[in-house]
Amino acid sequence: MDINEDLLKKTVEIAKREGAKELIAKLVKRQEHQIRFSNSAIDISKQWNLDVLELFLSIGHKINVISIQNPTIEKLNQEIPKAVQNLKKLPRSLLYWGMDKNNYSYSPIEGLYDSRIQDFSDKAPELVNAAIDASLEAGAKKTAGVLYFGDLKTGVMTGYGNGGIYDSSYFRITVRAFVDAESSGQDMVVGRDLTRVESKFIDAGKNAGKLAKMAVGGQQGKAGKYDVILSPTVGGNILNHILDGANILYIIGRMSCLRGIKMGQKIGPANLTISDNATISEGLNSRPFDFEGTISQETPLIKNGNLAGYIQNTSSAKIWRLLKMLKFKFRTGIRTTGNSYLGGVLDEDIGPKLLAPIPSNYVYQPGDYSLDEIIADSKKPTIYITSNWYTRFTNYVEGSFSTIPRDGMFLIEDGEIKKPVRKLRLTETLLGMLSRISAIGKEVKQINWWEVSTPTFIPTIKVADCNITAATQ
Amino acid sequence: MDDGKDIADYVIDFGTAKGASYVEARFVDSWDESYTTRNGMFLGILENTKKGIGIRVIADGGMGFGSTEQLNKATIEKVITAIIKMAKASKRKEPIVFSEEKVEEVSWKTEVKQQFQDVSREDKKLYLKNMDNRLKKESNKKLKNRIAHIQLHTEKKYIVTSEGAKNSSFNSLIVTMLMNTARAKVGTEQKMFSIGGTAGWEWFEDINFTEEAVKSGIALVKTAENAINMKFDKPIDVVVSGEVAGIMCHENVGHPSEADRIYGREGAQAGESFYGDLLKKEKLGEATLGTEIVTVIEDPTVPASAGFYLYDDECVKARPRYLIKNGKLNELLLNREFAAKFNTKSNAAARAVTYNREPISRMANTFFEPGDFSKEELIAGVKEGILMNSFTEWNIDDRRFQSKYVGQEVYLIQNGELTDIMIRRPILELTTVGIFGNVDGISNDYYAPLGLCGKSDPMQGVPVSMGGPHARLRNIRVGGSN
Q1: Would strands B402-407 and B365-368 be described as parallel, antiparallel, or unpaired?
Q2: How far apart are CA B211 and CA B152, in angstroms?
Q3: B41: number of CA atoms within 13 Å, CB side?
Q4: CA-based radius of gyration for chain A
Q5: Which of B352, B307, B341 lies closest to B167 in space, CA to CA?
Q6: CA–CA distances in Å: residue B314 to residues A235, B37, B128, B458
Q7: Plot region of B480 (φ>0 → left; ψ -120 to 50 → alpha; else → beta)
């Protein structure tokens, strides 16, 4: 796969000629695969081929976005003039305040691309079957899961001359093993480096199988107040909602529990440090630059337990400065953090597209304890939750939510796992949980699956005094 | 559309020649326009068109799926060759087979009086601005944050299979979402209000969308200002509105009825189904899930509904499905793959959200069959209880048995009278049997909000409606709100 740089240049040239004042052309070619499996067999193998040009255009505060599938010079000449004419008729966007005009010299991020991805589709079914077999050998009776892998080429060119072309590849596999309908366990592997990939898949299968076996015989747990140990999968799902709120769009839209929290305010324990980092090679959202061509960086979000920053793009940083000015609390130094992305207003694919800040990879700094040490140190009744789903909110500003544990869940007493438990719900507030973090694990794992959309490097996390509820009838 | 039909027909010829035992091509030509405002100011407007083809094959008992936007023979041949190879490499011990269905050549469409494209962008902008102005004014400016979103979608689709089925359709869909925040005595209250349908622009006038949106906004302000905490020490009766009854039917009955879940195909994503265990012990028609008056219907053929279709994405004719009939588990949601496993026929549950997704078992419009009571009669029969008009947070376990619904606009009922006393966030944390086994009255009205039902991986959010009449649940332990 190659990116046609001339096509990018031509796009910029036509858009400028037609009257666009600011613009970004992004060309993506990708071949992605998925293998879904259940009942210990492959259900379906999929392949997606995409060759698309996304074009962001603006005049002042007016914006327009078009996508051109399989772009050719002829299509550019047809579509861009129409898009610029439409742009002139659109209302101003409340959220567009310009893009990055600075020029950067980019350094490549090593490890974004593993060329072995090119023939990975030949080996993938065999590797999936190896993971299935490993989970069955570990005690599972049946196994389900999904493997994704992809080979991508991305080219960005802005009207200010920023951008470039880079290759990337990835894989991610989730294995969920069942001993019976209610005794299950899950594990996953996420990354780019295909070295020893077979043994990584086998380990995931084995871990899922072991966990499923441990869950056998679980009974209805009792509602009450417990310390809770969150596996990386669960911590990523719940706590990332706080980090997602470190974004002006969420703050303005009253969808963030960080609304009203001052920069530097203490919200977690002193050993809690989390950043957004687009420069880690294995991170699935890493890239040398963002949609505006702004160089990638690490942005502290929570540092030593204190709120440390928000992700920004050029427009959001300007809006933030304006809001600060209006409140007569002008702060300098708020600028883009290289998190600009073209996404839907309401979701990735829902609503008009906007140039807005979105997270790259969340990175939690490791703590001091192994999982075994955290369990051994749990003298009070403690629930260990290994997976969860269906996190929903009563109120986003309060951060009041509940979520449903699934897969192996265990009651710990006197520092030991006593028994598997089931059918419980964690009913909490986000900042309440953050403030009650009592231990952070030392092993960090990258999580990215159905319930954790932002790739997240996160250890096991223990939270004191959480509300656990259960069905009343 | 013609270019798509030709290429879809070619898919069948080429795929069959390459040795696939089943080939299906689904060409989609779609148009979207969406408008989003915050407090009346535009965040953005987007118009987008998409064309592409999704191809599904069965080869050596394995299944492959591919999609492309490059509608030329060379690309199509490459995609088919690749997915047949992948399907064969699955090395399944148990081959995938489809149920045998009537092969038809059909054409169907949504009834539209005024095409979206025939209304100017200025008029659409004005409509949304006027709606927001009304909302702002009639809520006495107490809705501090109002996000309004309208999505208009049309889709021409052509599906052809190697068995000879040919299905052409045109659908026209409206999705609206309002996310409002009202300042409360303490903090705020938030509500996502969403309705939609399959029709043209006339839908907005026909259902009086502005009035519905304003009604929802006023109810939120009223809740924020008046709802009080109340603890119920003993079980009480709960009357739930169509909105709340609908989400219960959708989550607690619709999802566990999906046959792919029952067989574990969603095991690593949306989960399995408690019906799996139930059906090991009892047959369809025997297992009891609710009281005798409970009948839950799943019907894609409801005209103008959000989940409307007449043939599914496997070219099977749609019909109402009676998931629960008189309290008994009666029917599942079947596509062809899982109909074959149950040794029966598909009931047209196969849906794919667009060309680059596979069709799987989905819901369309799920609701209680209306009963004989009026809403007022249901309330009159309650000595101590609540009327839950709307809900906020909800969730359910991945076997679809342990659910939670947090009430939003909720009123106290005392001695058969609906009072003005509003209750803050009461919680129903109930099992599926705990809900449907306690229903003793269903009203004769009908109201069905829209949802974008999430399932599968990659996620496919398909438009559905979930609503119906009011239902009365007896002796329910109500939590929260204290």
Answers
A1: unpaired
A2: 19
A3: 10
A4: 24
A5: B352
A6: 40, 38, 37, 19
A7: left
Chain B nearest-CA distance from A139, in A, is 17
Provide the greatest CA pair distance for chain B: 74
What part of B 23-42 touches A (C-beta under 8 Å)?
A: 34-36, 38, 41-42
Per DSSP, the residues of B39-84 read: TTEEEEEEEEEEEEEEEEEEETTEEEEEEES--SHHHHHHHHHHHH
B401 in Cβ contact with B431 (< 8 Å): yes
| Cis status, amide bond into B458, omega within 30 of 0 | yes
Quote the strand ranges of A308-376, DSSP E.
340-344, 353-357, 362-364
| Single-letter code of the amino acid located at B180 | N
With an 8 Å Cβ cutoff, is A106 touching chain B? no
With an 8 Å Cβ cutoff, are A176 and B268 in contact? Answer: yes
Do the Cβ atoms of B24 and B162 come closer than 8 Å?
A: yes
Chain B residue with CA closest to A178: the answer is B267
Which single residue is written with the structure tokens 């129903």?
B428
pLDDT in tens, A157-216: 999 999 999 999 999 999 999 999 999 999 999 999 999 999 999 999 999 999 999 999
Q: How far apart are CA B103 and CA B96, in angstroms?
A: 19
Backbone φ, ψ for residue B315 (5° rounding): 65, 30
The secondary structure of residue A366, as a DSSP letter, is P
| Nearest chain A CA: its distance from B58 CA (Å) | 9
Residues sharing a CB contact under 8 Å with residue A164, sequence separation 6 or more, in sequence order: A106, A155, A156, A288, A289, A293
- Say yes or no: A404 contacts chain B, CB-CB below 8 A: yes
At B283-338, the pLDDT tens digits run 999 999 999 999 999 999 999 999 999 999 999 999 999 999 999 999 999 999 99
Ordered domains of chain B (ranges, CATH):
2-226 (3.30.2290.10), 236-480 (no CATH)
Phi, psi of B453 (to 5 degrees): -75, 125
The dihedral formed by the CA atoms of A116, A122, A128 and A129, expressed in degrees to the nearest 10: -140
CA distance B12 to B86: 18
Selected residues 420-459 of chain B with any CB under 8 Å from a CB in chain A: 425, 429-431, 434, 438, 452, 457-459
The answer on pLDDT for B481 being more than 70 is no
Mutate: best of A1, A32, A38, partner B, most B CBs <10 A: A38
Domains annotated on chain A, with CATH? 5-212 (3.30.2290.10), 219-309+361-473 (no CATH)
Whether residue A392 and residue B430 make contact (CB cut-off 8 A), yes or no, is: no
Q: Is the Cβ–Cβ distance between B404 and B436 less than 8 Å?
A: no
Q: Does B89 touch chain A (CB under 8 A)?
A: yes
Q: pTM for the complete prediction? A: 0.96
Q: Which of residues 209-228 of A touch B (CB under 8 A)?
A: none
Q: What is the token pair recorded at B302? A: 């409801």
Phi and psi of B311, rounded to 5°?
A: -135, 145
Query: What pLDDT sits at residue A327?
Result: 63
